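lol forgot to send this yesterday, sorry. struct tokens for the thing we talked abt
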């Protein structure tokens, strides 16, 4: 099966990866501030809220696609928290920030995961990192072969 060529794949992957990692770090910072604002429960709240995200960090740092796929599932809990907080009568800026960051993380992590898989498959089908061509033209027959 031929792999379809995607224009500017390395640029798209770099932007999605940067967006996912920056919004990921910002979400951890916002959640840390939220846990810290609760006073004496800070260590317990921080572990409950931030550790599920931090478990994925080593694989994300190595640019593997599976942690980004798992991040899409994990971030749904933060999305639910953001929606619930944003729709409450005492909504704060943190609720809207968590909601916006969770949407950004979901989309950029999904794209990063998919494009990492694509580049890995592309590198396995192209020996020595040759440029990808849509179709290889058949070689013309040699004069010796034609009788």
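and heres what i got for the seq, position by position
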């Amino acid at each position: 099966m031929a792999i379809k060529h995607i224009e500017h794949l390395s640029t798209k992957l770099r932007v999605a990866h940067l967006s996912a990692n920056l919004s990921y770090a910002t979400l951890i910072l916002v959640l840390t501030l939220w846990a810290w604002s609760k006073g004496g429960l800070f260590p317990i709240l921080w572990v409950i809220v931030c550790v599920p995200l931090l478990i994925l960090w080593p694989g994300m740092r190595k640019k593997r696609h599976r942690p980004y796929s798992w991040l899409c599932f994990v971030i749904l809990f933060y999305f639910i928290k953001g929606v619930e907080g944003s729709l409450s009568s005492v909504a704060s800026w943190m609720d809207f920030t968590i909601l916006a960051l969770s949407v950004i993380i979901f989309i950029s992590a999904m794209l990063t995961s998919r494009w990492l898989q694509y580049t890995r498959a592309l590198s396995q089908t192209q020996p020595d990192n040759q440029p990808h061509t849509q179709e290889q033209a058949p070689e013309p027959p040699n004069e010796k072969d034609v009788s």
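The first helix runs from residue 9 to 37. anyway ping me if u want another try
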